[in-house]
Design a protein that fits this description.
6 helices
Length: 165
């Protein structure tokens, strides 16, 4: 299964869910990735430094990365970018404003909640539908969920031209 190829021993880094992806062999052919639209992932956090940490594993997973520090930056980004996945990396931003902004779109959104040893990922939106209150994911579970979402986006982008013929 796709996600099993991405799950490895988690490193002792601030990126327990995605940092290990850089060590994995890419399961998609290069030509297929180049010809399809890359999933757009927005990281919402307190510092652009977060983007430098998250970009390599997300790029390895076939994603295009974006970063916003505020609600205003998120709104500005949405005027010219179709987002697929939003990862909220801190509790400083009001989730309700962002959820209201993204509701009804095709975006899947997760909020990272730090705990003593690691983090939990709370599902907030799934394909634009509110799913607050759904079960949270441990880092290794989230890696699988994230991988399946990315795989679905890439598969849909690959099949879209065929469905219009």
């Amino acid at each position: 299964m796709f996600c099993e190829l991405l799950v490895t021993k988690l490193p002792a880094q601030p990126l327990p869910t995605l940092a290990s992806w850089g060590d994995q062999e890419d399961v998609r052919s290069g030509s297929q990735v180049d010809e399809t639209r890359k999933p757009n992932v927005l990281l919402i956090g307190e510092s652009p430094y977060l983007l430098s940490l998250w970009r390599p594993p997300l790029a390895k997973a076939g994603c295009q990365c974006h970063f916003a520090e505020s609600h205003q930056e998120t709104v500005k980004l949405l005027t010219h970018t179709e987002l697929d996945i939003v990862l909220s990396l801190n509790g400083q931003h009001g989730l309700s404003k962002i959820v209201a902004l993204l509701a009804g779109s095709r975006v899947s959104m997760f909020h990272r909640v730090p705990v003593e040893e690691g983090c939990w990922w709370l599902p907030v939106l799934r394909n634009g539908h509110n799913c607050l209150g759904a079960a949270a994911f441990r880092p290794n579970e989230f890696t699988c969920v994230f991988s399946e979402i990315v795989k679905g986006i890439i598969t849909e982008a690959t099949l879209s031209p065929l469905s219009t013929i």
